[in-house]
Design brief:
Length: 194
């Protein structure tokens, strides 16, 4: 789904509950920040710039409107996919992604990259839509998913991103379910062995 179409589609949800979660979550970003799947920049108004050292944006398609903005901190744009990030291990204090991993082709590889580039003492801030825990919906959602993917440019409604975060080497420290269980918001950190 193109970003303007996505924004129009998400408007009612954005108005009622997403905006509130962005407002709570994004101001916690600090230090060297990586935002994956920047889209139309829905999170940008919520950064507390005085605690952000730099902002690195990764998205296969970065709109001109995002590139042309003036930012209060150094920014860089990387038009590429999260599965192969060109950054050394432990590069970022904060990694942010919101409503992204539903459409990443190899979401586990992408989340492993997030776990690799975040510092051991860093944080991952996320909002995602997921397969809800109510199992009676699973059959319907699996049945609809192939058609949904086709009309939404690869968005999946059956992703278990909460479980995938853990499988990728991240520990979920805080997580809230909302939107009847279809959405999650929270904070994770890298699991440090030993
Ligand atoms: C639904 S939009 C969400 C945009 C924004 N984060 C928000 O919260 O409104 C999904 C974004 O993820 C990006 N995206 C899709 N696949 C990606 C990938 N493999 N790596 C990085 N970003 C990706 C899309 O280009 C799009 O901008």
């Amino acid at each position: 789904m193109s970003v303007p179409v996505f924004d129009a589609f998400m408007y009612p949800l954005e108005a009622v509950s997403l905006r509130r979660r962005r407002r709570r979550l994004i101001p916690r970003a600090s230090g060297r920040v990586l935002e994956v799947g920047i889209g139309s920049g829905a999170n940008l108004p919520y950064y507390r710039w005085e605690q952000v050292e730099s902002l690195t944006m990764v998205d296969p398609t970065i709109p001109l409107g995002i590139r042309d903005q003036v930012y209060p901190v150094p920014v860089s744009f990387h038009p590429l996919s999260v599965e192969e990030l060109p950054f050394p291990e432990a590069s970022f204090d904060t990694v942010v992604f919101t409503l992204v991993f539903c459409s990443v082709p190899d979401n586990r590889a992408g989340l492993r990259e997030v776990a690799r580039v975040v510092k051991p003492a860093g944080q991952v801030l996320f909002i995602e839509h997921v397969l809800p825990p109510a199992t009676r919906l699973h059959g319907v959602m699996h049945a609809i998913n192939p058609y949904w993917r086709r009309v939404s440019s690869g968005c999946n409604i059956i992703r278990k991103t909460d479980e995938e975060l853990t499988a990728a080497g991240l520990r979920i420290g805080e997580m809230e379910r909302f939107g009847n269980g279809f959405l999650i918001a929270g904070r994770a950190s890298r699991i440090v062995p030993g």
